[in-house]
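Aim 2 progress update. The chain analyzed this quarter is reproduced below.
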Amino acid sequence: MSDIYSSWILPDLTDLTYIQELKNQGLEYPCIEYIRFAKQGTLNGEDGGAGFINGNSSVYVMSMDWFGGFSYTPENAQAVSNMFVDKYVTISGTLETGVLEMLQMGTQQEDNTIEAIVSWVKSIGFNGIDLNIEGISHFIIHEELIPNFVSFLERFVERTHQEGMKFRFTTVPESLIRGANLQNHGPWRNSMVSHIPFDYIVLMAYDAPNNEGFVANCPFDFLEDAIQSAQQSFPNNKIVAGLPNYGFVQLANDAYTTRIFYIEEAIKEYEYDLMTERDPLSGELYRQYETKIWPRSPEPPQLCNVYFSDYTALQQKMERCRNLGITHFSLWVGRKGSDFFTKDNQTGQPEPTPAPAPEPTPAPEP
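Predicted structure tokens:
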């Protein structure tokens, strides 16, 4: 079976040329984050009685927290729809920013939300829903809501399939839930939803827990354990390995202090061209040096561990997945300058700046 590539897309979609470039370089189905769960009243505009989203305006501007924001228009949705056969709207959020509130409000509110999302996704010409819920640890204080969440997923998938659309459930892997020093991560287990007919289950095999010293974003053993745990509940053809298409920086004296960065920032702030050492446990480029976790912070530079999942590292991770029978991959995140989807950037080094075209030589005077 040949590999299948998807990617989450988080930019302003007014310029679609780079999405076409990603498609030309291997992207087969995009997951575009148009909708974010939030507590009522925190999105742009009112929810209009249609659940926790507002899909009624011709321009849909959504709060994206520290991601900033971007706009939906019928024109850019149609353009993406014309480019791809499978295209997903990603509904993202955390349990504590809207999902728990929705579950506490009862079945009617859940069904309103499902109907609003399904109808809106269908109306813009997309044919898939990617539900990406984080913050599963909050079930430790709301364990009574787990049956509600399972029932919500059952009805959400059924309603999506009624419209002939696909459903991806994106979730943290068991290896993260069970991580050392995370014994209290909560009672949730992905096996609780193994009976639901998801088209795909996507494992967020990134942001590994920093609980045993300083670790890379996606160590090989973390990735393999994520897959092997999922294989106990789901068939291989439904499992998608979610891999990090970005970097990871952490203070050398505090492994819990981390942030992510992308290729553009890596070239500008983290001297990506000097990152030549590879971490043997993850295949990621590695460097330890004096820098800032937050580049524009007034704080002075400190000793940091910097990791980056470049093309070579991602290929190594994919090979580990193939050895376990997994050939579906989804990369967080696809954007301009994205290392994996740039054919001329497979050496782990930034692309050279093209030389300016020579000035034309004026013709001699007669």
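Confidence is low (pLDDT under 50) at residues 41-70, 180-184, 346-354. The CA atoms of residues 205 and 223 lie 6 Å apart. These observations will guide the mutagenesis experiments scheduled for the next reporting period.
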